[in-house]
Amino acid sequence: MSVVHENGVIRLVGRCAADDAETLLNLLVDETDATIDASDVSKLHLAVAQLLLACAPRIRNLPADPMLAQLFGRRSAER
Amino acid sequence: MDELLAQFFVEGRDLVQRATADLGLLAQTPGDGSALDSAFRAVHTLKGSVAVFGLVPAEDLLHTAEDILDRARSGQIPFDGRAIHRLQRAIDRVDAWIDNLEATTALPRDAGSVAAAHIGELRELAPQLGDATAAGEGAGSDGRSATEREAGDATWAAEWFAAESARLLEAPKTLTVFRYRPDRDCFFRGEDPLALALAVPELILLRALPSESAWPELGDFEPFQCVTRLEGASGASADAVRAAFRLAPGQVEIHRIDRDEAQAPAPGARRARETILRVEASRVDRLADGLGELIVAVNGLARLSGELAKSDPARGAELRAIHGQLEQVSNRLQRDIGAVRSVPLAHALRRLPRLVREIAETLGKTVDFRLRGESLEVDKRIADVLFEPLLHLVRNAIDHGAEQPEDRVAAGKEPACRITLQFERAGDRILVRLSDDGRGIDAAAVRDTAVKRGLIGREAAEALSEAEAVRMIFLPGFSTAGAVTSTSGRGVGMDAVQAAVEELRGTVDIASALGTGTTVELGLPVNALTTRLLVVEAGGHRYGIALDQIAETVRIDASEIALAGSGEACVLRDRTVPVVSLSALLGGDRAQGGVARLIVTEASGERVAIRVDALGERIDAVVRPATGLLGSLTAVAGSTLLGDGKILLIVDLAELLA
Predict the structure, then answer these.
(1) Minimum distance, in Å, between the CA of residue A40 and any CA atom of chain B
(2) pLDDT digit string (tens) for B55-109?
């Protein structure tokens, strides 16, 4: 499973495909207080990425991949 | 007010001003490519701003104006005087709508039909435009109209590059920049635009932005619709980048961009990125007031250090050193705050060119209006108050000065009346000169009118020189207009202009030559309107003295004043200082009494102590320059009205002691 919710943190792990977008959206809507940890993402479909971008303030850890981190207008080092 | 809207009023008007300035440049230098680019960018940005507030007529109008400018840039249509005129009218209209929006929070009801009329006028410039814009308007709401794609040529790439330049420092000198707008349904087709973009060779930078103005709320999110656009830069060639996007034809714009060219973007583009803080003027005023009090307190310290030095010279010297530092710092602060309060005149005057065009059009006159030196900075209060009198003067120049075009041609002049408004700095004054090459003022007609209105007797009028006669137009109740027009005849005469200018401690002068034109010159202070005064008493009268002429005030025993030659002197800070009595200088008796109150001044170049009977309060006052009878008195700098209704004469110490 690439989208995991545990202890108030939504974790994205490994390859996140387009199908994960719906799961992630439901979690984001239901768990309004949950933060997002994307540090273990290895591949991100744009359907998932655009959801993350839309709630960027909730992201606690950006993807480790520098090019993916850049999408969010910040470098991963700045997280 | 909504903060966003408040910001729009400022920025929208900046853009109007920029577009107007660019069109002005183009009128003078047809084919000026950078002015054309700059006008295009201003209109493009303004269109985006009005769209945010749903001002549809303004958006449609600017959309068409942008099209025209874009076509002119690519040389598809000739960019002549007619095009400039119509574009300027369109921009003036939007500017008036912004004013309207601020005053009534809505556009006028007829905005739609007015916009349509302007759009029709603009489309005549580019007949082939009709279909394209019609389609563009239909698609206007999805933010990706056909025109936006066309218009989004190298401009966005240059701006994008400038915005990201800090992150591109290590990048090659020449880059390929791309903007990829995947279509909404691409996810259903199994495409992953992000993977595609990440596969671009030599990718240096990639950003994801909402395809609309903002990301949707989570509640509105359709997980399988693409609402993102991707922008990036690559070190590879344009062809290599194009090849990477071969599966997304028509969705990608690609540009080669050179760092050196992109590093010098349009002045406007760069300016927008400077950090600018907008602060309410009242906050700065409070700061200035606080500083004024600080300066008074620091002055008090000077006296204390002098007294302390008598009993404890070492301590006194220490205190004096501290006082010196405080004084230095507070002077610097005063200068800095003065600079903050300074605004370019251009801001206050931005509506003027538009109003000139409107007035000229109403009166059927052709006017070539030019502003010079409007980048000059003055205190905000002056800039704010100056607009009305200037508008009135300009209105007069158009109404009474400018002849009808055919009359001008018959008189051997250009058909357009040249009206120039020029600003110049001269020391701590600014000179404002409004000159026109119109018909000039007929001194004989002015004499007749003044006599007819009972403002002056016939004999006295005839005795006046031409110049003096012309000056009578500033008398209250004077108006040379044979017919009252809607433009000038608003019951406000030139006397109102004179009053407004004097309120600013300014002066008005006028010179006119029949047949060749009129020049009105205003002299205004650059700095704030109020002067800090110390009120003193001498010979039973109160006088005001500007604090900046006072080095210190001291009280000594009258016995310490000794006769020295023909005058008197005392010792202050180990130096012999001449003592003069203010009332004696002003023609009264010499000050008496056991305690001598002295004002020490260096205004005349050397230290002189002036003895007064009493030292009163310090006040901030608007000093009116001495005119008329007062002006003939030496040493009277002006007058001010006190809270109790009495008039306080301001004594100029430098002139008094000269």
Answers:
(1) 17
(2) 888 989 999 999 899 888 888 888 888 888 899 999 999 999 998 888 888 888 8
User: What is the count of residue pairs from A and B with beta carbons less than 8 Å apart?
Assistant: 68
Rounded CA-CA distance B287/B295 in Å is: 12
Query: Helix B3-28 to helix B352-363 angle, to the nearest 10 degrees?
Result: 60
B269–chain A nearest CA distance, Å: 20
Per-residue pLDDT band at B154 (split at 50, 70, 90): low
Q: What ipTM was estimated for this complex?
A: 0.92
Distance CA B572, CA B588 (A): 26
Concatenated DSSP letters for B592-625?
-SSEEEEEEE-TTSS-EEEEESEEEEEEEEEPEE
pLDDT in tens, B473-498: 888 778 644 444 444 444 457 887 88
Beta-carbon separation of B187 and A18 below 8 A: yes
Between strands B541-546 and B647-651, the pairing is parallel
What digits encode the pLDDT tens for the residues B95-111? Answer: 999 988 888 888 888 88
The answer to whether residues A41 and A76 touch, using CB atoms and an 8 Å cutoff, is no
Selected residue of A26, A41, A46 to mutate for chain B interface (largest B Cβ count, 10 A) = A46
